[in-house]
Design goal:
elongated, Rossmann fold, alpha/beta, 20 strands, 6-stranded parallel β-sheet, 2 domains
Length: about 400
């Protein structure tokens, strides 16, 4: 793991019982050689003192936006320019709301708004506050603004309730920061292709064969790759999902269109085939709408196997080829069989018979099967978190 020696981190401490963890966080960062400056919000000062913070950080604690002494130095600008990274821990629901809506009524929110650096946010709040629709909308905004979330975790709360909302432990936060700096050390921009969503195979102008894929996991993988500096192309079947402009989004409908778009965008360093491509298409598509009949039979033929084709063509093959397997039973056996037959490097498999994960859900639980017959499981979490962990493993593999 990368050392943080000489890195500069601006830590913003907000109000909440989890603020005590910020003291341990400062201790761990200083132990790793980090230079720390701190902003303590008015509510944060109700839980930890400036004296305890400055003693650990060995640096001044900034508090008042309108301090004549501070603002003569334009601290809301200079602090953000000084830092290599800004970390808000704990981040309360109120602070998250300010960040999401562009408020700048104190030093913490003003620095964040004026920042040109990566901002990490470690939320901490009651489970009901975390689950509230307004908080989730604000979190979605932060992600769209390219803020990086760490946590929150599930567990017992200071208020006596249990659920998601606990601030991540300081060592977990430090590890996430180390991963960020490790990834940012990649000098050459790597190219990645992701396929996502279903395909449509038309029977006539209004009817088609398809499947239940929402494309959510593939879109999140593309976002995670892009965040980590990959030049990312997302080839998507029909979905209502959106991505930022830094991702090259190519919309297709049929398996053949997806295949041709994939070929046009090779070579690449990484190819992740998460799309649920229809295995079959109608052999002869009607050019006019077929009228209702008592019985109708369709003659089907196999679609091109995009994963198999790319994985077995040496002149096209990326350094890392990852396939997906959505199964309803005997997951491990089918995943290993697909891994061997397709000649890919990894297979990511999930059990889509579980309605709480997989198709159309925002959550997933997957197992990664490797060529050397090892296996790794990413336990139940959001698809965005699954994607971030997966991309970290991809970067480790390429390195």
């Amino acid at each position: 793991m990368i050392n943080l020696n000489n890195k500069k981190i601006l830590l913003i401490i907000c109000g909440g019982i989890a603020a005590y963890k910020s003291l341990e966080l400062i201790r761990l960062l200083k132990k790793d050689g980090v230079s720390i400056k701190t902003i303590l919000t008015k509510s944060g000062a109700e839980f930890v003192t400036p004296l305890s913070i400055s003693s650990l950080s060995q640096s001044k604690v900034y508090q008042d936006l309108f301090s004549i002494e501070n603002e003569a130095e334009m601290d809301h600008i200079s602090l953000s320019r000084w830092a290599d990274l800004i970390l808000i821990a704990p981040a309360t629901a109120n602070t998250i709301s300010k960040l999401a809506n562009g408020s700048s009524d104190d030093l913490a929110s003003t620095v964040a708004l004026a920042s040109n650096k990566k901002i990490f946010v470690a939320p901490a709040m009651n489970v009901r506050m975390w689950e509230h629709q307004s908080t989730q909308q604000n979190i979605a905004k932060l992600k769209a603004y390219n803020y990086e979330l760490i946590g929150p975790e599930i567990g017992d709360m200071a208020c006596g309730e249990y659920g998601k909302g606990k601030m991540s432990e300081p060592n977990e936060i430090v590890n996430k920061i180390k991963i960020h700096f490790k990834n940012s050390k990649v000098k050459n921009k790597l190219k990645a292709i992701v396929t996502a969503g279903p395909t449509k195979e038309y029977i006539d102008p209004v009817r088609y064969l398809s499947n239940k894929s929402s494309g959510k996991q593939g879109y999140e993988i593309a976002k995670s790759l892009s965040k980590k500096g990959f030049e990312t192309t997302l080839i998507s079947g029909p979905t209502n999902l959106v991505v930022n402009n830094d991702i090259n989004l190519i919309k297709v409908e049929t398996a053949e269109e997806m295949f041709q778009s994939t070929l046009k965008n090779l070579p690449a360093d990484v190819a992740i085939f998460s799309a649920a491509v229809c295995d079959y298409k109608v052999k002869k598509t009607s050019k006019i709408k077929i009228k209702k009949q008592d019985e109708m039979s369709l003659e089907l033929e196999r679609n091109v196997d995009i994963l198999d084709y790319v994985s077995n063509h040496n002149s096209l093959r990326p350094n890392l080829v990852v396939g997906f397997a959505a199964e309803t039973n005997d997951l491990e056996n089918y995943a290993n069989k697909k891994l061997d037959e397709k000649n890919c490097d990894w297979i990511i498999a999930n059990d889509v018979s579980n309605k709480s994960i997989g198709f159309n859900s925002d959550f997933n639980e997957v197992s990664i099967f490797f060529k050397d017959k090892k296996k790794d499981t990413l336990k139940y979490k959001s698809k965005s978190e699954i994607s971030d962990e997966l991309v970290e493993k991809i970067i480790d593999h390429l390195n």
